[in-house]
Amino acid sequence: MISPTLSMGRRGLLLLAGALCAGPALCAVSAEEAAALRTTLTPMGAERAGNKDGTIPAWNGVYSQMPAGYRSGQRKADPFAQERPVYTITARNLQQYADRLSEGSKALLKKYPDSFRIDVYPTHRTGGAPQWVYDNTLRNATQARLSAGGLKLEGAYGGVPFPIPKSGHEAMWNHLLRWQGEASEVSFRTYAVADGSVTMTSQNRVFQQFPYYRRDGSAESFKGVFLMNRVVTDGPANRAGEMLMLKDAVDQTSGSRDGWSYVVGQRRVRKSPSLAYDSPNEGTAGVMNFDELQVFSGPLDRYDWKIVGKREMVVPYHGMKALAVADEELVGPRHPNPDHLRWELHRVWVVEGQLAPGKRHVAPKRRVYLDEDTWAAVLGDIWDGQGQLWKFQFTLGTLVPEMPGYLAAGGGAVELVTGNWAMLGLTNGLQVVNRMVPNRPETFFTPEAMARDGVR
Questions:
Q1: Is the sign of the CA dihedral 302, 161, 62, 59 positive or negative?
Q2: Predicted TM-score (pTM) of this structure
């Protein structure tokens, strides 16, 4: 269904597009449709206008300014630090706001009525990107296409591939290929909570590179790998020196993803295709699987994806406050401390994944909520094999003026049945906090380089 929050023109455009190009293998939009990216839609495909009651402002293309003294990579700076909640949602008034909440959000409020709440702050639309990304997105709108059941992307480069999506596969490709800069480096800690006991499970340095977004590149020179990710574990002591490396490509027809791991003590690098799908992520003590990072990551082939609609929803946004407090203040025994979470009302695309025929996954159904301004997943719901709502997923986003843009990178998941949960991306007190860096040689992201850099 298409949400009534959509304008009549936008709704008509989507229905027409769905009639012309049904299924995951879709055609590009017409030049006439793409022209809306310069008028009624933002360059990324969001609605420029605010909502009727003004609680979602219009997008004006002006990136929010950080406080004086801001330095690259500094995430404690918060231009909205003096704001106070407009209203608060609790288990008592949940029904009043039920249509604005994800299933997981409602479940968490019901499970912990005395300790969890949702403080809703004024909405700010700070999603942005350089003009060259906007230009590429406009070009992609008429040239990008999917084949092989939605698993192979062609004709796109350097921007959102489908700013006017017609299918769930297109929307999910927008999430996978959202603007996150050209290359970055970040240090963060991960915590797992079991039976109320909090454990720091890993401290990592992550080197990321996005060849799809090389400004000096082109569609012709692009080799097909859109993400290169190398993770170095610095702690705890028994895990120090471990390394992982992942590469994701725009052709997912072979399944899985390219992955390698460095084995401490053996000084060997091994191919690790298990770093995908529902393989438990050791860094979260198994609370989260590899495809749950940033709500969803990795190949799309285990699910049939469809757009359920577009809704105005209360979602976590502008998490600078959460990332600035001490970890022990944020990571509670049952869930994140609501005192440090900021929620806002935003329009999101609701995309649902149902297990594809002949495929296997521990979670046969999942729902992903994509922020219209950035295409980043901000919330997620996961159901288990018995049809029971299993996990509540969330992200913590932050402003990155030097990118420029809004980056939803940290976050976690709460198992609603057991009460165990995990949170990653915490950066308080660390030296390198998600800074943009120059592109590294591609040889840095090779098994040989991992073996050479191994220290144990």
A1: negative
A2: 0.92
